[in-house]
Specification:
This protein has 254 residues and is α/β, with parallel strands linked by helices. Helix 1 runs antiparallel to helix 3.
Protein backbone atom coordinates (compact mmCIF):
# COMPACT_ATOMS: atom_id res chain seq x y z
CA UNK A 1 0.00 0.00 0.00
CA UNK A 2 2.88 2.38 0.63
CA UNK A 3 4.72 1.76 -2.61
CA UNK A 4 4.68 4.65 -5.12
CA UNK A 5 2.67 2.61 -7.61
CA UNK A 6 -0.18 1.81 -5.22
CA UNK A 7 -0.16 5.26 -3.66
CA UNK A 8 -0.49 6.71 -7.15
CA UNK A 9 -3.33 4.33 -7.97
CA UNK A 10 -4.98 5.23 -4.65
CA UNK A 11 -4.74 8.94 -5.46
CA UNK A 12 -6.28 8.28 -8.88
CA UNK A 13 -9.07 6.16 -7.36
CA UNK A 14 -9.86 8.81 -4.74
CA UNK A 15 -9.94 11.53 -7.41
CA UNK A 16 -12.31 9.46 -9.56
CA UNK A 17 -14.49 8.61 -6.55
CA UNK A 18 -14.70 12.25 -5.44
CA UNK A 19 -15.63 13.27 -8.98
CA UNK A 20 -18.35 10.61 -9.09
CA UNK A 21 -19.72 11.69 -5.69
CA UNK A 22 -19.86 15.33 -6.82
CA UNK A 23 -21.69 14.33 -9.98
CA UNK A 24 -24.05 12.20 -7.91
CA UNK A 25 -24.80 15.09 -5.56
CA UNK A 26 -25.45 17.33 -8.55
CA UNK A 27 -27.90 14.83 -10.04
CA UNK A 28 -29.58 14.48 -6.63
CA UNK A 29 -30.04 18.25 -6.47
CA UNK A 30 -31.40 18.27 -10.02
CA UNK A 31 -33.86 15.53 -9.03
CA UNK A 32 -35.21 17.72 -6.20
CA UNK A 33 -35.23 20.94 -8.23
CA UNK A 34 -36.95 19.40 -11.24
CA UNK A 35 -39.66 17.78 -9.11
CA UNK A 36 -40.22 21.07 -7.26
CA UNK A 37 -40.36 23.09 -10.49
CA UNK A 38 -42.86 20.67 -12.00
CA UNK A 39 -45.03 20.83 -8.86
CA UNK A 40 -44.95 24.64 -8.79
CA UNK A 41 -45.77 24.82 -12.49
CA UNK A 42 -48.67 22.42 -12.01
CA UNK A 43 -50.08 24.50 -9.13
CA UNK A 44 -49.66 27.80 -10.97
CA UNK A 45 -51.44 26.39 -14.01
CA UNK A 46 -54.57 25.65 -11.98
CA UNK A 47 -57.34 28.21 -12.42
CA UNK A 48 -58.34 30.39 -9.47
CA UNK A 49 -61.58 28.96 -8.09
CA UNK A 50 -64.23 30.11 -5.61
CA UNK A 51 -63.48 28.68 -2.20
CA UNK A 52 -66.82 26.85 -2.21
CA UNK A 53 -65.57 24.71 -5.13
CA UNK A 54 -62.49 23.61 -3.18
CA UNK A 55 -63.21 23.61 0.54
CA UNK A 56 -66.17 23.84 2.90
CA UNK A 57 -66.24 24.42 6.67
CA UNK A 58 -65.24 21.27 8.61
CA UNK A 59 -64.56 19.44 5.34
CA UNK A 60 -61.25 17.57 5.29
CA UNK A 61 -58.50 19.53 3.59
CA UNK A 62 -58.07 18.08 0.09
CA UNK A 63 -54.89 16.15 -0.67
CA UNK A 64 -54.13 18.43 -3.63
CA UNK A 65 -55.37 21.61 -1.95
CA UNK A 66 -52.01 22.99 -0.83
CA UNK A 67 -51.15 25.96 -3.05
CA UNK A 68 -54.58 26.11 -4.69
CA UNK A 69 -55.61 29.72 -5.24
CA UNK A 70 -59.20 30.59 -4.37
CA UNK A 71 -61.36 33.70 -4.21
CA UNK A 72 -63.20 34.44 -0.99
CA UNK A 73 -65.28 37.39 0.20
CA UNK A 74 -66.07 38.43 3.76
CA UNK A 75 -65.16 40.75 6.61
CA UNK A 76 -62.28 40.75 9.04
CA UNK A 77 -63.31 40.20 12.66
CA UNK A 78 -61.82 42.98 14.76
CA UNK A 79 -59.76 41.97 17.78
CA UNK A 80 -59.26 38.31 16.87
CA UNK A 81 -56.02 38.62 14.96
CA UNK A 82 -52.67 37.37 16.24
CA UNK A 83 -49.07 37.04 15.11
CA UNK A 84 -47.08 33.88 14.49
CA UNK A 85 -43.58 34.48 15.81
CA UNK A 86 -40.17 33.49 14.40
CA UNK A 87 -41.06 33.47 10.72
CA UNK A 88 -38.45 34.19 8.05
CA UNK A 89 -38.81 36.24 4.88
CA UNK A 90 -35.76 36.64 2.66
CA UNK A 91 -33.53 35.74 5.59
CA UNK A 92 -35.13 38.26 7.96
CA UNK A 93 -36.82 37.22 11.19
CA UNK A 94 -40.28 38.54 11.86
CA UNK A 95 -43.90 37.50 12.36
CA UNK A 96 -46.89 36.50 10.28
CA UNK A 97 -49.95 38.69 10.80
CA UNK A 98 -52.99 36.40 10.93
CA UNK A 99 -56.59 37.66 10.86
CA UNK A 100 -59.98 35.97 11.21
CA UNK A 101 -61.98 36.37 8.03
CA UNK A 102 -65.72 35.71 8.38
CA UNK A 103 -66.65 34.33 4.97
CA UNK A 104 -69.77 35.99 3.59
CA UNK A 105 -71.11 32.89 1.87
CA UNK A 106 -71.00 30.56 4.87
CA UNK A 107 -70.42 32.72 7.96
CA UNK A 108 -67.51 30.41 8.86
CA UNK A 109 -64.03 31.54 9.87
CA UNK A 110 -61.00 31.35 7.62
CA UNK A 111 -57.57 32.15 9.06
CA UNK A 112 -55.62 34.27 6.58
CA UNK A 113 -52.01 35.43 6.66
CA UNK A 114 -52.23 39.08 5.58
CA UNK A 115 -48.45 39.38 5.48
CA UNK A 116 -45.10 39.45 7.25
CA UNK A 117 -43.88 42.10 9.68
CA UNK A 118 -40.41 42.74 11.14
CA UNK A 119 -40.15 41.57 14.73
CA UNK A 120 -41.33 44.26 17.15
CA UNK A 121 -43.36 46.19 14.56
CA UNK A 122 -46.89 47.33 15.29
CA UNK A 123 -49.45 45.44 13.25
CA UNK A 124 -51.45 47.67 10.88
CA UNK A 125 -55.23 47.36 11.24
CA UNK A 126 -57.13 45.16 8.82
CA UNK A 127 -59.48 46.88 6.33
CA UNK A 128 -63.01 47.43 7.61
CA UNK A 129 -66.07 46.36 5.74
CA UNK A 130 -66.33 43.83 2.96
CA UNK A 131 -63.17 42.56 1.33
CA UNK A 132 -62.51 40.22 -1.53
CA UNK A 133 -59.35 38.12 -1.40
CA UNK A 134 -57.36 35.79 -3.56
CA UNK A 135 -55.57 33.42 -1.20
CA UNK A 136 -53.29 30.43 -1.60
CA UNK A 137 -54.57 27.62 0.59
CA UNK A 138 -52.46 25.62 3.03
CA UNK A 139 -53.29 22.93 5.60
CA UNK A 140 -53.14 23.75 9.28
CA UNK A 141 -49.83 23.51 11.10
CA UNK A 142 -48.81 21.32 14.01
CA UNK A 143 -49.26 22.58 17.58
CA UNK A 144 -46.55 25.02 18.57
CA UNK A 145 -44.98 26.34 21.71
CA UNK A 146 -47.51 26.88 24.51
CA UNK A 147 -47.68 29.71 27.04
CA UNK A 148 -46.83 32.56 24.69
CA UNK A 149 -48.17 36.03 25.48
CA UNK A 150 -51.72 36.83 24.41
CA UNK A 151 -51.88 37.67 20.72
CA UNK A 152 -48.86 35.53 19.86
CA UNK A 153 -48.55 31.96 18.62
CA UNK A 154 -45.80 29.79 17.23
CA UNK A 155 -47.98 28.11 14.59
CA UNK A 156 -51.37 28.30 12.89
CA UNK A 157 -52.92 25.39 14.72
CA UNK A 158 -56.55 25.04 13.69
CA UNK A 159 -57.36 22.83 16.67
CA UNK A 160 -56.56 25.81 18.90
CA UNK A 161 -58.46 28.31 16.77
CA UNK A 162 -61.64 26.23 16.69
CA UNK A 163 -61.79 26.63 20.48
CA UNK A 164 -60.96 30.35 20.46
CA UNK A 165 -63.02 31.67 17.54
CA UNK A 166 -66.82 31.51 17.58
CA UNK A 167 -68.58 29.70 14.76
CA UNK A 168 -67.48 27.15 12.20
CA UNK A 169 -63.93 26.94 10.89
CA UNK A 170 -62.36 26.00 7.58
CA UNK A 171 -59.82 23.18 7.82
CA UNK A 172 -57.06 25.20 6.21
CA UNK A 173 -55.75 28.75 6.08
CA UNK A 174 -54.78 31.11 3.29
CA UNK A 175 -51.88 33.33 2.30
CA UNK A 176 -53.30 36.61 0.99
CA UNK A 177 -52.10 37.24 -2.56
CA UNK A 178 -54.60 39.94 -3.55
CA UNK A 179 -56.84 42.06 -1.34
CA UNK A 180 -59.67 44.32 -2.47
CA UNK A 181 -61.79 46.54 -0.22
CA UNK A 182 -65.42 46.27 -1.29
CA UNK A 183 -66.96 43.58 -3.47
CA UNK A 184 -67.69 43.94 -7.16
CA UNK A 185 -66.46 46.32 -9.84
CA UNK A 186 -66.22 49.20 -7.34
CA UNK A 187 -63.63 47.37 -5.24
CA UNK A 188 -60.47 49.22 -4.26
CA UNK A 189 -57.20 47.24 -4.20
CA UNK A 190 -55.52 47.21 -0.79
CA UNK A 191 -51.73 47.40 -0.80
CA UNK A 192 -49.59 46.14 2.05
CA UNK A 193 -48.52 49.06 4.26
CA UNK A 194 -47.03 49.83 7.65
CA UNK A 195 -44.11 47.47 7.09
CA UNK A 196 -46.43 44.64 6.07
CA UNK A 197 -45.16 42.46 3.21
CA UNK A 198 -47.07 39.72 1.44
CA UNK A 199 -45.83 36.21 2.21
CA UNK A 200 -45.06 34.02 -0.81
CA UNK A 201 -46.90 30.71 -0.41
CA UNK A 202 -44.52 27.96 0.71
CA UNK A 203 -43.29 25.58 -1.95
CA UNK A 204 -45.27 22.36 -2.02
CA UNK A 205 -43.81 19.13 -0.69
CA UNK A 206 -42.50 17.17 -3.64
CA UNK A 207 -41.10 13.78 -4.34
CA UNK A 208 -37.97 13.17 -6.37
CA UNK A 209 -37.65 13.11 -10.11
CA UNK A 210 -36.79 9.42 -10.27
CA UNK A 211 -34.83 9.55 -13.52
CA UNK A 212 -32.29 12.01 -12.12
CA UNK A 213 -32.35 10.22 -8.78
CA UNK A 214 -31.35 7.00 -10.55
CA UNK A 215 -28.49 8.85 -12.24
CA UNK A 216 -27.34 10.03 -8.82
CA UNK A 217 -27.45 6.47 -7.47
CA UNK A 218 -25.36 5.28 -10.42
CA UNK A 219 -22.68 7.89 -9.76
CA UNK A 220 -22.55 6.93 -6.06
CA UNK A 221 -22.23 3.27 -7.08
CA UNK A 222 -19.38 4.16 -9.44
CA UNK A 223 -17.56 5.97 -6.61
CA UNK A 224 -17.86 2.92 -4.38
CA UNK A 225 -16.83 0.60 -7.24
CA UNK A 226 -13.65 2.57 -7.96
CA UNK A 227 -12.47 2.35 -4.35
CA UNK A 228 -13.47 -1.33 -4.17
CA UNK A 229 -11.51 -2.13 -7.36
CA UNK A 230 -8.40 -0.45 -6.01
CA UNK A 231 -8.71 -2.43 -2.78
CA UNK A 232 -9.28 -5.69 -4.64
CA UNK A 233 -6.33 -5.17 -6.98
CA UNK A 234 -4.07 -4.26 -4.07
CA UNK A 235 -5.22 -7.31 -2.09
CA UNK A 236 -4.63 -9.63 -5.03
CA UNK A 237 -1.12 -8.35 -5.57
CA UNK A 238 -0.46 -8.50 -1.83
CA UNK A 239 -1.51 -12.17 -1.76
CA UNK A 240 0.63 -12.89 -4.81
CA UNK A 241 3.66 -11.27 -3.16
CA UNK A 242 3.00 -13.18 0.06
CA UNK A 243 2.71 -16.48 -1.81
CA UNK A 244 5.94 -15.80 -3.71
CA UNK A 245 7.75 -15.02 -0.46
CA UNK A 246 6.38 -18.22 1.12
CA UNK A 247 7.54 -20.29 -1.86
CA UNK A 248 10.99 -18.69 -1.71
CA UNK A 249 11.25 -19.49 2.00
CA UNK A 250 10.15 -23.08 1.43
CA UNK A 251 12.70 -23.41 -1.40
CA UNK A 252 15.42 -21.98 0.82
CA UNK A 253 14.65 -24.49 3.59
CA UNK A 254 14.42 -27.49 1.29
Amino acid sequence: MITPRWLGLLALAVALAVGAVLLGRWQWSVAHDRARAEAVQEIQSRPVQPIADVLAPHQSFPDDGSGQRVTVAGEYAAGDGFVVVDRLLDGRTGVWLVERLVVAETGANLAVVRGWLPAGSEAPPAPKGEVRLVVSLAPGESPGQPDLPKGEASSIHLGTLVNEWPGDLYTGFGFVMEETRGVGDAGEPVTASGGLERVPPPLPDTSLDWRNASYAAQWFAIAAFVIWMWWRMMRQESRAVTEDESEEKEAAHS
